[in-house]
Design a protein that fits this description.
- With 363 residues, the protein is an all-alpha fold.
- It has a domain of 210 residues.
- It contains ten helices and two strands.
- Helix 3 runs antiparallel to helix 9.
- The longest helix is centred in the first third of the chain and has 71 residues.
- The radius of gyration is 29 Å and the shape is globular.
- The chain starts with 8 loop residues before the first strand and ends in a 7-residue tail after the last helix.
- The N terminus is likely disordered.
- It is found in: Nucleus.
- This is Transcription factor TGA7.
- InterPro entries: bZIP, bZIP_sf, TGA_domain.
- Keywords: Activator, Coiled coil, DNA-binding, Nucleus, Transcription, Transcription regulation.
């Protein structure tokens, strides 16, 4: 089936590896929902000839108007109270997040101290760096990677918050709350995924192979992984059937978005293949069997620096796909989409658990 052509807008923040052409991105901001306006009260003028009775007359004339204003302001006051409560909840959430970030920083410093103590212990025992082996999250020197340890602590906390948000979305959709309140939950869910992308960008600088392998994920999640995360076009296939029937315009927009995702994914995949070929050729260059290969390793290291760029580009594509999809859908549809995404991840994790605990029949 031929889909309508899609115009790509070059991203200003997205660098590409040399084999890749510029990838189009989308960056529409979510439109906020304005608060309702309340018409001003009618002011009653008192005639000059009734000046002596103005106080009594004005009270009598304004009484019905004041009563009308009070009745009209009730829905507005209710919305204001809800918004005030939401702002207070957001403030407390920011304070908790700040305290948690400080806790992570303290943990990172403790890990660095532990790393230094381990290194000193190895030196005292006369161990050479060349004799160390890579175990778990240890580098080739055997030192603990504090960036990875901090990420795993943060990801565990992220998953706890993710499960809570899924529960809140499910309750909110069942309770048929207002779109204003639902919009706040959608914004919170989107910000939660953006926080994960930020965390991944930081840990990629510490160890990009850790992100590429998806070690922090369950086995089923890793099975569907693409450059350290989900493939956006495949995710659209999962989410769209779970959303309410779309309008013709929405269907067209989703088809264009899916086609754009596939084109960007193909460009990134081709660039990854080219990078692998280049690194492999670099390591294989020179005469084998001589035992000296440090120059080849040094050149390969330089080329592998582009791998961090690929991970960041893939996450940028994932982020833009979520934001663009949210702008296409209504608030209620976007909430259902986030709920479906969260439950899909939970099902993958459940599949991993069941697979790990399956009974093994004797051969």
């Amino acid at each position: 089936m031929d889909f309508p052509s899609t115009q790509f807008v070059p991203s200003r923040t997205m660098g590409t590896y040399e084999p890749i052409h510029q990838i189009g991105m989308w960056g529409e901001n979510l439109k906020g929902i304005g608060s309702p306006n309340i018409s001003p009260s009618v002011i009653v003028d008192v005639a000059n000839k009734l000046e002596n009775e103005s106080e009594t007359t004005s009270h009598e004339l304004l009484a019905p108007s004041s009563k009308y204003d009070q009745e009209a302001s009730k829905p507005f006051d209710k919305i204001q109270r809800r918004l005030a409560q939401n702002r207070e909840a957001a403030r407390k959430s920011r304070l908790r997040k700040k305290a948690y970030v400080q806790q992570l920083e303290n943990s990172r410093l403790k890990l660095i101290q532990l790393e230094q103590e381990l290194q000193r212990a190895r030196q005292q025992q006369g161990l050479s760096a060349g004799g160390a082996i890579e175990v778990g999250h240890l580098g080739i020197s055997g030192a603990v990677n504090s960036g990875i340890a901090a990420f795993e602590m943060g990801y565990e906390r992220w998953m706890e918050e993710q499960n809570k948000q899924i529960c809140d979305l499910r309750i909110a959709l069942d309770a048929q709350i207002s779109d204003i309140e639902l919009h706040i939950l959608v914004e919170s869910g989107m910000s939660h995924y953006l926080e994960l992308f930020r965390m991944k960008s930081s840990v990629a600088k510490a160890d990009v192979f850790y992100v590429m392998s998806g070690t922090w994920k369950t086995t089923a999640e890793r099975f569907f992984s693409w450059i350290g995360g989900f493939r956006p076009s495949e995710l659209l296939k999962v989410l769209v059937p779970q959303i309410d029937p779309l309008t013709d315009h929405q269907i067209l927009e989703v088809c264009n978005l899916k086609q754009s995702c596939q084109q960007a994914e193909d460009a990134l995949s081709q660039g990854m293949e080219k990078l692998q070929e280049t690194v492999s050729a670099t390591l294989a260059s020179g005469q084998m069997g001589q035992g000296t290969y440090l120059p080849q390793v040094a050149m390969a290291m330089e080329k592998l620096e582009a791998l961090v760029n690929f991970v960041n580009q893939a996450d940028h594509l994932r982020k833009e796909t979520l934001q663009q999809m949210s702008s296409i859908l209504t608030t209620r549809q976007a909430a259902r989409g986030l709920l479906a995404l969260g439950e899909y991840i939970q099902r993958l994790q459940a599949l991993s658990t069941v697979w790990a605990n399956r009974s093994h029949e004797p051969a």
